[in-house]
Structures are given as C-alpha cells and as structure tokens.
Amino acid sequence: MGAEDRITLKQIRYFVAVYESHSLSRAATHVNVSQPALGTQIKALEQNLGVQLFERTPSGLLPKPAAHTFAKSAQLILENLKDARLEIDRLSSAAPIDLRLGVTTTSGRELAGSLLRDANRTGAKGRYNLTLFEGRSDELLGLLRSRKIDAALSYEGSSEARCEVVPLYLEEFVLVGAPNVMKGLSGAVALEEIEGIPLVASPAEQGSRPFLKRAADERGARLNIDVEVSSATIKAEMLLHHQKCMIVPKGRFLNEIKQGRLAVVRFAPPLTRTMTLFMAGGIVLHARKFLRRAVQNAVHERMKQVQLGWSAIEDQAKASKGRLPADKRALQARTSFRKPSS
After folding, report:
1. Residue 124 is part of a domain; what is its CATH number?
2. SS3 string of the chain?
3. Residue 269, preceding bond cis, omega within 30 degrees?
4. What pLDDT, on a 0 to 100 scale, did the predictor assign at position 69?
5. What is the CATH number of the domain that holds 41?
6. Domain end (from 91, 106, 128)
7. What number of other Cβ atoms are within 10 A of residue 245's Cβ?
8. Which domain holds residue 53?
9. Residue 13 neighbours by CB distance under 10 Å
10. Are 188 and 245 in the same domain?
11. How many domains does the chain contain in total?
12. Distance between first and last Cα of the chain
C-alpha cells in the first residue's frame, strides 16, 4: 500500500483548515475537533507524505513549500467533492436551481434578453431560475465574494474569490459628450489630447476610475475630472444637459449617439478592457455549463447584430501582432479555475 493510499479525506479536510487559518486552534474550531486530535491527524499526514508541512512558530503554523504544493490538490479535491454532492442533491430533487448573475449597465442592457430567453427555452425551463443584478464592475465582484450572487460579468480581476474565469470579449472605451462640446475633435485622438475636456467619472477607486488612471499614467495624460458621481442617471444628466463628457464603453450611450444627442470620439491607440465571466465554485456542474454557454451565446449573438465596440479576444490578438493593449492581461487570459492566493 502506497503512502497516497493511507491518506484519508479527514486528513485532507484537516490539512486545508490548518493551511488556510495558519492556526491549530482556529482550524480545530472550524472542523469541530479538539486540538490534540487535529494535531495527530496532521502528523499522520506528514508521515504519509514523508515531509514536514508546517513550521511551528510562536505566532502560529507557517506553511512550508511542500504545504503550498499539496494545498493545490487538496483544495481541488474538496471543491470537486462539494460539486459532486451538489450534483447528486440536484439529481434527487425536482426543485429548480436559482442562478444569480451580476451584470454591468451596458452588458445587462445588451445581453439580458438573450439570457432570459435561454433560461426559458425547452430543456432549461423549470431547471434554472435566472435572476439578473445590475451594478458596477467592482460592486459585482464584492457580491460574488460574499456569495450574494453566483456569477458576475466584470472587467476587474478576482484573485480573492475561488471562481471559474471565462474571458468573453474586449470592449472599447470612447469619449462621449454633447456635440457642441466635442466639435473640436475629429477622427481618433490620443488620450493626452483631451486634457482640457471636462469629464464626469466615478469617485476614486470606484467603477472604471482605477482603469482610467492606469491608462492615463501609461500614456502620460492628465484627465480633467470635473465631476465625481456614482449614479449612472446623474452621469447621463451631466452629459446631456450640463456640457460634460465621459470615457465609457461605446455601447453605454449607443441610442443617444444614434439619435445625435451625443457625439463619440475614439482613442488612438484604442482603449480597451476585457469583459470576463466569473462563476463561483459552488455552482453545480450542469448549471455552470448552462450559464457559461448562455452568456457566450448571448455575447456572440449581440456582436453580430450591433456595433457595440466589442471584439473577440482572438481577433484582437491577431490585429495586435504580438503587442498587448492597455489592459496587458487581456490577451493572456484563458479559461481557468482560480484559487485563493496563498
């Protein structure tokens, strides 16, 4: 019998509890056993593996390199077991699965119809209850981390949440404002050319503000943030009636642009971000597949119908000829299962 045959599920559960808490006492409370019993199982695991996993210090247990390596597989084993239990529970129950998807303003408006239609198609109807929640990109990831929603469409990264990551498309950001304010601009402009334009933006560290700051720093531009406001309604009011401009996804004000109420100017080089689907690890497998497929189908359908400034990531990769856009991770992103950083 090999060492791996002597490793028990209990030892794996106890190891993960100690690894994530860095404390024998906190881990014992979490798994509801005594500290001596927990310590005995950790020592047995170390003997089975033939390595020391933790360094005992006055401030707690410090994971050694072997612990970081073993944690990757141990956490995945527990996650897969949890998924299997949820899947079995689903098979034994006729109750539909509630899926809560967070969407940004633009993605929600453009994709909601297709997503809800998919949820009500034959085969899916009665199996899934899809509910959409609208919010800022950063807000949605906060809701995902706290498990108040099951998935989110977001521009941001999600290193804290254990989730599946599915890059969807690159979205172009443009300058939008009243035609009389924008009349001096034509064609595509550099970001530094709009330093005199009064802009409306979210408060610092909210929404797209950090992205705009990074882009401005990279391109040596100074943005004239004249009004800071969180409300999407007030932002639109500032553009339509108060001579302000915004740097936003083109699709955000597509109707107003078509009506001639707002003008649009592109940036050179283009200013893009990657829209990504993040799905929490606790979603059962068939529901995860349904949601992934529904979102991807809705995106592809909408990209064929409307010029939203969305582009497929592989298309942008070909056009860039090896050069990365402002969002340097956009073309490097691939579907993956992301775990909490150690």
Report:
1. 3.40.190.10
2. CCHHHHCCHHHHHHHHHHHHHCCHHHHHHHHCCCHHHHHHHHHHHHHHHCCCCEEEECCEEEECHHHHHHHHHHHHHHHHHHHHHHHHHHHCCCCCEEEEEEECHHHHHHHHHHHHHHHCCCCCCCCEEEEEEECCHHHHHHHHHCCCCCEEEECCCCCCCCEEEEEEEEEEEEEEECHHHHCCCCCEECHHHHCCCCEEECCCCCCCHHHHHHHHHHHCCCCCEEEECCCHHHHHHHHHHCCCEEEEEHHHHHHHHHCCCCEEEEECCCEEEEEEEEEECCCCHHHHHHHHHHHHHHHHHHHHHCCCCEECHHHHHHHHCCCCCCCCCCCCCCCEEECCCC
3. yes
4. 92
5. 1.10.10.10
6. 91
7. 25
8. 3-91
9. 19
10. yes
11. 3
12. 32
> Of 91, 125, 158, which residue constitutes the final position of a domain?
91
Q: Which of 306, 194, 175, 307 is nearest to 239 (CA)?
A: 175
**Apex CA 142: angle with CA 338 and CA 167, to 5°?**
45
Of 73, 66, 59, 77, whose CA–CA distance to 22 is shortest?
A: 59
Q: What contacts 160, CB < 8 A, 6 or more positions away?
A: 145, 340, 341
d(CA 117, CA 112): 8
Q: Are residues 148 and 277 in the same domain?
A: yes
Q: Is the pTM of this model over 0.90?
A: no
Same domain, 202 and 266: yes
pLDDT digits (tens, 9 = 90+) for 67-85: 999 999 998 998 888 878 7
| Residue with tokens 């969305």, as numbered in its chain | 310
CA dihedral 319, 213, 308, 338 (to 10 degrees): 70
Q: Which residue has the tokens 């689907």?
A: 277
pLDDT, one tens digit per residue, over 33-64 is 998 999 899 999 999 999 999 988 887 788 99
